[in-house]
Design goal:
Layout: H1 44-57, H2 59-73, E1 80-83, H3 94-108, H4 120-133, E2 136-144, E3 147-153, E4 164-165, E5 170-173, E6 176-179, E7 185-190, E8 208-211, E9 215-219, H5 232-235, H6 238-259, E10 263-266, E11 303-306, H7 316-331, H8 335-339, H9 347-387, H10 397-401, E12 404-407, H11 416-428, H12 434-439, H13 445-461, H14 493-497
Antiparallel strand pairs: 1-12, 2-3, 2-9, 4-5, 5-6, 6-7, 7-8, 10-11
Length: about 500
């Protein structure tokens, strides 16, 4: 290039790429590589051990699990079953439906697990927490003459290091035997040393194969072809959670030291300048205790200096809140819920955060229903009908297995008046059914009608007239207040004269 060409304005070439793919000096520390879904899980055991440690010892994670259990499972029956099998003429088979629901609640839900220690509500909570904490949940289906039982297997029983090619287009990937073409699970290989991940591969004990139809392996995949689950919500936030925990501990220790009011005694030339009368038997100056509202005399030739720790730090609260907002965003809950801090929360912001939370809860509810409740119900029903515990023909199994629904807990309305008005309009215009409205509170239609019937009977017993209408209270569209039928009547002559 000639000397004068260096000063000639060069036209920049246009580039077609994403700015996120730049490789300049500002992006040199961004190292990202291409890998398969399973290759990303090479440190799955380390990740799981750390999330379990946070679940045991970190109050933020403890609070997060509490929010999930309250919002997804609730404190009632968890997930309620509704069987809607029909006869050939289209009418509901009430006898069979009631029989199945009775056996489900009174036999299976009271004792669903092999150890006999847990109820079905406990199982729902453990499935939810295991899904979030460990990233996956495993249950073995134990078929007995008395009925189906569930046996929990921690995912550690699946050795992620067990990878092997088998015959007949089969292979073992991270402890799971799959069809090489379809990726369909065929069996699960369980190790006898589930928690000894430090054992060399050459010293691993033989694993036991369990057919896939006897195992429920539940996880939320983030990529196609993913064999194992991982705690993806905590994976993206665990570093921030741990650092915030360490930061809080450091500030607490520093504030405790500052509260101690440590002081130092100084002398111009050392201890020789202190009067001997102030020294102890060994020739050392004794420790001095400074009590509030007291006046003391320092030894001759000494001066006192108090340590200045500058704690508690005035910026701790703002930094703590900023970190918690980031963590709450990654976990999918509101800052107000995670922190229990409502000091700067308005009604509108709380409502938006609550509705967003509930959408996340509903997604988890749907996942648990589809991947846990329904498969367990179908396996249980098949075992009940096979053993004769439920006296229904086994050839009609699909009739009773398919038309089954589970409803999750409902939620209290953020604005009850507006919601009732909206439901009223939907019912009156045929856009909603009564069941649609009841789904908001987690109730089932037959249960609702049964409660209304019992309420009416009890009211008649005590000679009480109930003041409600079939779809609830009517509201005045203009005022939003309960509608009074007398408002449309002409005032009486007596009232006019007044």
């Amino acid at each position: 290039m000639a000397f004068w060409d260096r000063f000639t304005k060069q036209k920049k070439k246009s580039k077609r790429h994403f700015t996120g793919t730049n490789s300049g000096r500002l992006f040199n520390d961004w190292k990202a590589s291409s890998s398969s879904p399973d290759a990303e899980l090479v440190n799955l055991n380390i990740m799981r051990n750390r999330t379990r440690d946070l679940a045991r010892n970190n109050p933020i994670v403890q609070r997060y699990f509490q929010i999930l259990k309250q919002g997804v499972v609730g404190n009632q029956q968890g997930f309620k079953i509704m069987v809607h099998s029909r006869d050939s003429d289209g009418t509901l088979d009430d006898f069979a439906n009631d029989l199945i629901e009775y056996r489900w609640y009174n036999n299976f839900c009271t004792n669903p697990e092999v150890s006999g220690r847990f109820k079905m509500l406990d199982i729902y909570n453990m499935v939810l927490e295991g899904l979030i904490r460990d990233g996956e949940v495993m249950l073995q289906l134990i078929r007995q003459p008395s009925g189906l039982k569930l046996k929990f297997l921690e995912p550690d029983y699946l050795d992620s290091r067990l990878n092997k090619d088998l015959s007949n287009n089969r292979e073992i990937k991270m402890g799971i035997e799959v069809d090489r073409l379809t990726e369909k699970p065929l069996g699960y290989w369980l190790t006898n040393t589930p928690y000894a991940q430090s054992i060399p591969d050459t010293q691993l004990t033989n694993s036991v194969r369990i057919p896939a139809e006897d195992v429920l392996h539940i996880f939320q995949p983030q990529r196609f072809g993913q064999t194992r689950g991982y705690p993806y919500k905590l994976a993206s936030t665990m570093t921030a959670i741990k650092w915030l925990q360490d930061f809080r501990l450091s500030e607490l220790v520093a504030s405790k030291a500052a509260a101690s009011k440590m002081a130092f005694i100084r002398t111009p030339t050392g201890e020789d300048n202190i009067a001997e009368s102030y020294l102890d038997e060994d020739g050392y100056m004794p420790a001095m205790n400074f009590e509030p509202a007291t006046i003391d005399v320092l030894p001759h030739g000494t001066d006192i200096e108090f340590a200045n720790w500058n704690h508690p730090n005035t910026n701790v609260e703002s930094f703590d809140k900023a970190m918690l907002r980031t963590i709450a965003s990654g976990l999918g809950v509101s800052y107000a819920s995670l922190s229990n801090d409502l000091t700067q929360t308005s009604y509108s912001s709380a409502r938006v955060g609550l509705l967003d939370e509930r959408d996340g809860f509903k997604m988890l509810q749907t996942f648990i229903i589809e991947h846990f409740c329904k498969p367990v119900y179908k396996a249980w029903l098949e075992q009940e009908m096979t053993t004769g515990n439920i006296n229904l023909p086994i050839d009609k199994y699909q009739k009773f297995a398919d038309p089954c629904e589970f409803s999750a807990r409902g939620y209290h309305s953020v604005d009850p008046l507006k919601e009732m008005q909206s439901n009223q309009l939907g019912l009156n215009n045929g856009l909603l059914t009564i069941q649609d409205v009841l789904n908001q509170s987690g109730k089932e239609l037959s249960q609702h009608f049964s409660e209304l019937d019992a309420q009416q009977a009890l009211a008649e017993k005590f000679n009480i007239e109930l003041a409600y209408e079939p779809y609830g209270t009517k509201f005045n569209q203009q005022t939003g207040e309960p509608f009074n039928e007398d408002e449309n009547q002409e005032p009486s002559q007596e009232n006019n004269n007044e």
